[in-house]
Amino acid sequence: MIFAGIMIDSLKIDRLEKRWAARFLFLLVFAISVCSDLWPLGDPDLSRIYKFAEEYSSVSAAVAAISSSDAIVLPVITNENMIYFLFVLGIMFVLILISILYARLYVGEKSGQKPGQSVFAYIRRLPVLIIFFALIMIPSMILFSLFPVLLLFVIPALFFSPILITLEKANPINAIIQSYRLTNGIKLPISWDIILLFLLYQISGGLYLIFLPANSSAGVFLNGFCTAFFILAFGRMVGIFYDRVRIHPVVKTPGPIH
């Protein structure tokens, strides 16, 4: 099978021609993760929101509360909580961009480009990439809140869009359309590998939390290591799939975007 072994290869994050590039990105993600955990902006205390979610987690509990004489007491979300939410979203967005940069370095290497060429091409296309994420962010958040399972179909369809934007200079709309076409027949392998990678990340995090508190210094550093590893592994996975479909295709794919 042409897509066999991608999961294992994705974990070999140090295997770029210029290993210093992979190591630099690893240290960058590690530093961002550790610093954001140690010195977050806003108020990370979300205990009131968690308590509210637990009390009304089921439909029956919510219906019972509405039908009873007792009013549902909404949690108080402070301005500091909102700042923290925005801070977390910002950090996630930056990590996604770094993951795409790794993918761009990988496909650039497979296309015969030097790391400097890939980085400068990525920077030049960064505004378009940001526009792409602005277009899909709100619909994706709504979809995730209403029908989380559908993201397993949406994410594979958009899987190649960032690479098409940064490598083939596609505009956001064309990148979405072309990515959907390129992933015809391989959306299931993409979904499967994404799920496996996410489960590995969760399991690795759960293992050290058995022995260490999440807010301890050792816990924060281990979380930073796992986050850096799996952010780059995801970027490598995108690059490997794109290489096997587009750069060194084993199956026939649609032509380039004009």
C-alpha-based Rg, rounded: 21 Å
Shape descriptor: globular
| H and E order | HHHHHHHHHHH
How much of the sequence is in beta strands? under 5%
Distance between the termini: 31 Å
Task: Give the averaged pLDDT, no decimals.
Answer: 85
Number of helices: 11
The percentage helix is over 70%
Poorly predicted spans: none
The biggest sheet, with number of strands, parallel, antiparallel or mixed sense and barrel status, is: none
- Count all strands and give the number: 0
Structural class: mainly alpha
Q: How many distinct domains? A: 2
Key features of this structure:
mainly alpha, single chain, 258 residues
How would you describe the overall organization of this protein?
There is one protein chain. The protein is mainly α and 258 residues long. It folds into two domains: 6-43 and 82-247, no CATH class; 44-77, no CATH class. It is 73% helix and 0% strand. The protein has eleven helices and no strands. The chain has helices at 6-10, 19-38, 47-55, 59-67, 79-110, 115-146, 151-157, 161-167, 172-182, 187-211, 217-247. α5 (79-110) crosses α8 and α5 packs across α11. It is globular. The chain starts with 5 loop residues before the first helix and ends in an 11-residue tail after the last helix.
